[in-house]
Amino acid sequence: MKLLFIADGRSPTAAGWMEYFLLDDRYEVHLVSTFPATPLPGLASYEEIPAAFARLAGSTGGSGNWLRRWTAPGSRAVVLRRVRAWTLGRRSAALQRRIVGVEPDLVHALRIPFEGLLAAAAYSAAAKLAIRMPPLVLSVWGNDLTLHAAADPTIAALTAQALTTTHALLADCRRDIRLAYEIGLPRPTPTAVIPGGGGVRPKIFFPGDPDGVDPRRIVQPRGLRAYVENETFLHAVPAVLDHAPDVRFDCPGLAGDPRLAALAGKLGIEHAIRLLPALPQTELAALFRRAAVILSPTTHDGTPNSLLEALACGCFPIAGDLESIREWITPGLNGLLVDPRSPVSIASAILECLGDPVIRSRARLHNLKMISERALYGNVMPRAGAFYENLV
User: Checking phi first, is residue 297 left (phi over 0); if not, alpha (psi -120 to 50) or beta?
Assistant: First the structure.
């Protein structure tokens, strides 16, 4: 089967998904990247059709580049999304030509903004010209529907159009399948719920010896995203330290943000917080294995890869109380859910689980079994392959 993916070629999540097909000689894999990237080994072809300003964003996708910092506040992020939406026509013509040239059996856009919108525009234009196109699959990841589409009427309208154009939809949570039907996905369009990056890699993310866990160490790995309540989290730390002064927090992906460093200094918590750079997966996994708790204080989410990976390493989860997260966490059974905008809620949950080793032990056993049954890469990705084959 010949597959053509449309994705941000820098994305580890996209790479994780495509890797399964690249390593299987039953598939020929082509990539159109919307950002400058280093082509993955084994690709049959690679082409860039960049989103607006993509080349200024750098080739690594890291949080430190100037464009990502500039577009982080909500209003400016909306401006960038609109500018990219306005460029769809010109770029969709290039994508259409690429699809016709490659002649794939199936095209898969690995998120809706910008890649799915671009694909839908190409397919709509092709239909007007009576150009036959292969089946199109869209993926919904994380915040495509709850944040990006909801934040701006232009993106909302384009998202609805994309959902009416696609032949199939993949999402990383059941909530987004429900929302897609409400927004405009026709019934009975084929759908499936599959973790965005294809699931957890057990050779990297696995539990360590429970005796090696530091019961006072917490990891907050969600990085510098607009929907992560990092300042609220920092405001919760003093209340935790008042009752448990030896608790320590590791925060991959937060290094280099002067606002957070200044806030930690103002709150007098620098000694308890490590603002770390983004870590390679092996180092992140080692951090998870040493920690008792993963904290995910988000106001929007699908199924976060980092949450599943931390659960696979044995961490006790504390996360924002979101519909998608409740698909994985039952409060009091295998984790705790909080109001991510409330320092009191976050601090109370941290102190509750740190003071109760029984709930942490029970959750660890439950979560390891759940990940084994629902989220291992080697079990999840064959379902994706079967989905493709049934669609074709």
Answer: beta
14 phi/psi in degrees, rounded to 5: -65, -40
CA distance 100 to 133: 7
Q: Angle at CA 367, nearest 5°, toward 318 and 332? A: 50
Could you state, in chain order, the average pLDDT of each consecutive group of 10 residues for the chain (392 residues)?
97 95 97 96 96 54 41 51 67 95 98 93 95 97 86 88 97 96 95 92 96 96 94 98 98 96 98 96 98 97 96 98 97 97 98 96 97 96 97 96
Single pTM value for the model? 0.90
What are the φ/ψ torsions at residue 33 (nearest 5 degrees)? -105, 135
Q: What is the 3-state secondary structure (H, E, C) of the chain?
A: CEEEEEECCCCHHHHHHHHHHHCCCCCEEEEEECCCCCCCCCCCEEEECCCCCHHHHCCCCCCCCHHHHHCCCHHHHHHHHHHHHHCHHHHHHHHHHHHHHHCCCEEEECCHHHHHHHHHHHHHHHHHCCCCCCCEEEEECCCHHHHHHHHCHHHHHHHHHHHHHCCEEEECCHHHHHHHHHHCCCCCCCEEECCCCCCECCCCCCCCCHHHCEEEEEECCCCCCCCECHHHHHHHHHHHHHHCCCCEEEEECCCCCHHHHHHHHHHCCHHHEEEECCCCHHHHHHHHHHEEEEEECECCCCCCHHHHHHHHCCCEEEEECCCCHHHCCCECCCEEEECCCCHHHHHHHHHHHHCCHHHHHHHHHHHHHHHHHHCEHHHHHHHHHHHHHHHC
